[in-house]
Task: structure prediction
Amino acid sequence: MESSEVTDGFGKALEQASNEYLRLFKSDLRFIKKTEDRVSACNMCFMRARDILKEEEKAKAVLFTFTITAYNLEQQKWDKCPGCGDPDINQQSVTGKAWQGCYKCRVLLSSNGLIKAMDPNRGAKS
Result:
């Protein structure tokens, strides 16, 4: 398959994976004599590589840190996002109900001071 034929992201990833698999099968694992065993070893290598990437991504994940002073205890509402400090947290639902939340940090801000993650299945502000 020529790279000029592949234009989408999946096609490029598929081509790259195929090339890597072939290199692994033909040279890096040539000490394994049986074809089935070599195929199995290639598959295990790719699964382990995927796991390593996931572990690295998980280690890089930044925990949400917040500033508690963003909550106004007297008025029982948030003055700004406790994560990024954005004051644009006052929202209105399609039904007209007012609520507080930050689309950048994907958090809902309750009037009692609780912070909850937004539902990832719900639409974000455009």
In short: The CA atoms of residues 103 and 115 lie 13 Å apart.
